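Morning!

This is the sequence you dropped in the shared folder:
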Amino acid sequence: MADMSKLTIREIHSKPAFEKDDDGSVADQHPAWRPGVARDITTGFSTAASALTTGQLVKDEFFTLFEAVGALEIMDPKMDSGHLRSGETLEDDYDVLRELLPEEVIGIMDQLLCFEMAWHAGHPLSQSLFTSLYLDRLLWPEPKMLEEARFDRSKVPKPENKMLHLVLRAYCLSLVKTCDFVHQRISKEHYYEEEDFVSNLYHRNLLTQFDVVEIHHMINEALNYVSKLTNISITLRDALVVRLELRSYFLSAVQFDEIIDDHRVPWWERCLRLIPALPKTTYLGMRVEASFSIKIQRRLASTVPPRPMVNMSFDEAFEQLTKLCQNGKDAYRILDYRGGANLMRFIWAYQSRTPQPSVYIRCLMQAMVFSEMRVLGMMSFKELILDNLREIVMPADVLLDSSNFDVEAPQDPRFHVAKRMDDFMATAADRFLDIFRTLCMNRSRLRRILCHLVLEWDNLQFDAENFDTELRKYSNEAPLKDANSSEDLWAFPLSSWAYYHKLQQMEWIVQMGFELDVYQIDELGGMYWYLQYLISTRIQHLERIRTFTTRRLTRISESTLEEKAAFRRSFSFLDFAILEASATLSFADGLSCLFSFFAHLRLVPAPYHDRPYSTPEFRYNLRMRPFISISLPEVPSYQQFAALISLRMPDKNGTYGSKVKPAQSEINQQASQMLELAEQSLKAARREWEAVSKANAETARCQGCEDWWRTSVKNVMRACINANIVVSTAKKALANAGTGDARDVLKVEMVESAKGYHPWWIVPKISAK
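The structure's back. Tokens below.
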């Protein structure tokens, strides 16, 4: 063996592998490998390695990261998908052409259903459906005609074994085509790869090129065959029929098309009627574990480490299928358009249900809202924005008169009004529609996107002010006089509209922080205070809008029936929005005081107490980062915030720094005052939420989703009642403590948002010791 210590790596690679002889032929310079001859290179390798100093790294420039990772994977069963253990074969020896009992067919169908639901839940096909040897035989090699998608891949169909070649084949083909429709629907809409859904098909075709009519024909043939079987029990026969019919109905329900109407609803309803029969007959099935293999992954993705099959139980799959079909049916309620505010309420209520609808349903919702650049397939984006403007800030306004957009004469003022309104709507359209699209995302992604979207609305608000100033001369608006400063007050309707939506999104960001457990315990009181700060700002803004709307109504000498109806609609929206915001404000204020009470008595950590590697002000600025760049409303400084949410709070160690610790009686007295404030706010919140719950669907803008909205309001009221009970318990315990330490008589236990009555309202458990 040559001394490799005298040969550099560059020289090794620089020597040609082939050289030409004198006659021009190519000769291999590397010695030919001879089978059965092995050489021990240990000594030579050790000698070459001994020339290296300790810690010296030898790196071959031709040995890239890819080869390095590949070298680590080789022969590692956890990383090398091609590694074979002792006695293991490369391919599975399961015979997909063997005779199947009806019980085995039922077992395979149920297992395929479990894998299908696992795919809907976000797992890759390589760990779910594509582990089936039956599906693999159908899809690979890729069939050019549907007749080629067979288990035997024979050109001559075999009449025997129809339980396999007719029943199971029809079920599998329908399953694959269903997955194709689902994949197409999700791929066309906004979603997050590997966060919501894994779209990788591993170079397999899901029968996209074949007409669904052919698939239905095969299912009908299988149903006719099974229904005429006399050599199996009626129970087995009915179980097979139910599964074939459900597969046919499910295929029709998810069929991909561009038609936006409710013609798919009956298919979802039929699925829901059949689903309860599945768990009643699943015991009949015999699991065929050998028909599913992880070895197929070697042909699907050779560069990806092997991953285990997803084991979803039938009960979990049954529950997910039921919710999928129910959500699919309910999604079509959105087609009953009742206004922009009602549409937004519907999507919010629909997506806020627990558990959240699957990614397919969320994409279906997106398709119905945005299909073919039409809202619900019935109106343009421009019409949606105009309708929302009329509902909130500009009822029966001359600037929004539809006749303005028909004027083509440049000398007509209406032409300029229409042009400027078109410019504004072109600016606002993407941002407004992004709200609806964002509401269809998963909950974590929703909050994250809103943090970016609210900045765009802040810019839109100031752009809208310029449009308002330009349009003012066409509306003959007269200003109001400010009683305090004698300054002119203008309506700024477009800017007010943008400001309203911006404030609403800011509230959503804060509220979803509670839902997603973003905040630490010591932050809860402060964030509820900031929430009520935002809501109080929105209430003031709504009252301002109402003032200008009322004034404009009084200036109309003789209003028509249409104008009166438009103003009634706007006042209805504003009045209910103020009531709902007031109820939310009272609840947030009550919880803020309650958590401050607990912190004051050191029952929970003090707000923003000192921690290693950070300061309270630094953490506060990080928490407020989504809002710091927003111009209005301004984020309070940390000093203002700390002064508003706390009394003299103890630090982390329970001391008061350089200040003299007040007497325990003084601490309890201050805490008692804070508890009184919490009690007043929470009682007001309960009254106001009761008033909210009594509103009809039209007033609450929840037509089409009234049951979901009322369930949410009912849960908020339960949380409010629970908070009132906590205050009463705390008052009694504090009275019993007298001048002693309240920690001796009170115990506070925090509750996760998901386990409370409502995820936005975290009410701790309290008990007397």
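Headline: The beta strands are 18-20, 26-28, 480-481, 488-489, 746-749, 765-768.

More detail when I'm at my desk.
O.
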